[in-house]
C-alpha cells in the first residue's frame, strides 16, 4: 500500500508528521505502508516554481492514497492563481476528479466542555458535510479581473454546475445517508441562483431512487442558522463547493475546534485525498501549538476508505478518544484542569495509544 504525503505549508508539515507517526504506529504490528513525500502549495512554488509540481501530480496518480496537510499562505493568496499555494490543492482535487469531500462533524463527548457552545446544543452532534469539490464558483469560467471601457476594474467568477456533476455528488450523499440515519439535507440558494435551482431539481430527481432516505432542502443562509441552533437534527448535508467550504468551518465549532475536523476527498475509484479541513494557520505555525487530531483522524479515514484497513482505522479513532479521555489538550481545545500539550506531544500520545489499542 503506497501513501503519498503532501505536508504543504504552515502547520501542514507539523500536523502531517503526527499523522505519519500514527500510521507508523499502526504499521508496527499490522499492515505495511510505503510512504513517500512530495511538495505542494508554497512549498511546491519554492521547490519547483509550481504550487502543484508535475512530479507531485505524477506521484499522486501512482499512490493508493494521499495524505495532505495544508496549502497556501496569506502572502501567496493574493497572487495570480499560478503563483498561489492554495491553487495547488484545487488543481490536485480537479486533476484526480475527487468530487466528493466528506467532512464528518462529530462532537467527542470528552470535548463537550472545551466548546464555547452550550452542552444541550452540541451533545450528540454527529453529522457529515458532503461538499462537492471540483465544480462551482471555484472553477467556473469566465473568471478574472479586467477593465471595462471606462477603465474600472471588474472581478468575475462564475457559479457553474453541470447536471452530471450535481447528480454524482447527490448519489454519493444518498448512499452516505443510507449508511447512517437515512436523512439527507441538500443546501442551496435556489431562490436566487439559477445554478442552485438546477441543483435542487437534480437532487430531487436523484432522490426518487432512494425512497428510504428522507430528503429535505434548506437555503444556505437558513442552513447556517439551523446548523448552530439544532445541529443534532442533521445527518448528511450535501452542498456545493463554496457553501460546503463555509458551512464546514462553522460546523467545526460544534466539535470544539477546527483542529478536530478531518476529511476524505473521494472520486469514483478507490484512491482518495485525505485532508484536515483547516488551513495552514500562519498565526500558530512553527510554535508547536497546532492540533494534529484533524490530520490523524484524516489518516483513519484513509485507512478505512482507500486502504481497506477498517480495524486499524478504528484503532486510530479509539486512540484519539483515549488521549482525550486522559485529558490531553492542545491550546485550541484547552479546558481547566486538562493536560496542556503541544502538537508533537499530542502525536506521541496518540501513537502510544494506538499501540495499546492493537495489543
Ligand atoms: N486545505 C487547505 O490547504 C486550506 C488552506 N487555507 C490557506 O491557509 C491560510 C490560512 O487561512 P485561514 O483562513 O487563516 O484558515 P486556517 O484554517 O488556516 O486558520 C483559521 C484559524 O483556525 C486556527 N487553526 C487552524 N487549524 C488549526 C489547528 N490544527 N489547531 C489549532 N488551531 C487551528 C488558526 O490558528 C486560525 O486562527 C491561507 O493562506 C489560506 O488560503 C485555508 C483553508 C484550507
Ligand atoms: C484552497 C481552499 C479552497 C481550501 C479550503 O478552504 C478548503 O478546502 O476548505
Ligand atoms: Mg475551507
Automatic annotation (TrEMBL):
According to UniProt, residues marked as the site described as Important for catalysis are 138, 189
Provide the reaction this enzyme catalyses: (2R,3S)-3-isopropylmalate + NAD(+) = 4-methyl-2-oxopentanoate + CO2 + NADH
The answer, when asked if Thylakoid is one of the entry's keywords, is no
Q: What is this protein called?
A: 3-isopropylmalate dehydrogenase
Q: What does this protein do?
A: Catalyzes the oxidation of 3-carboxy-2-hydroxy-4-methylpentanoate (3-isopropylmalate) to 3-carboxy-4-methyl-2-oxopentanoate. The product decarboxylates to 4-methyl-2 oxopentanoate.
UniProt superkingdom: Bacteria
Pathway(s):
Amino-acid biosynthesis; L-leucine biosynthesis; L-leucine from 3-methyl-2-oxobutanoate: step 3/4
Q: Return the InterPro entries for the record.
A: IsoCit/isopropylmalate_DH_CS (IPR019818), IsoPropMal-DH-like_dom (IPR024084), Isopropylmalate_DH (IPR004429)
Annotated Mg(2+) binding lies at 221, 245, 249
In this chain, substrate is annotated as bound at 93, 103, 131, 221
Spell out the SUPFAM superfamilies in the cross-references.
Isocitrate/Isopropylmalate dehydrogenase-like
Which gene underlies this protein?
A: leuB
Instruction: Check the record and name the HAMAP family matching this protein.
Output: LeuB_type1 (MF_01033)
Pfam families, sorted: Iso_dh
E.C. number(s) listed in UniProt? 1.1.1.85
Tell me which family the UniProt entry assigns to this protein: Belongs to the isocitrate and isopropylmalate dehydrogenases family. LeuB type 1 subfamily.
Q: Could you say which cofactors this protein requires? A: Mn(2+); Mg(2+)
Q: What is its main location?
A: cytoplasm
Question: Which SMART domains does this entry report, sorted A to Z?
Answer: Iso_dh
Where is it located?
A: Cytoplasm
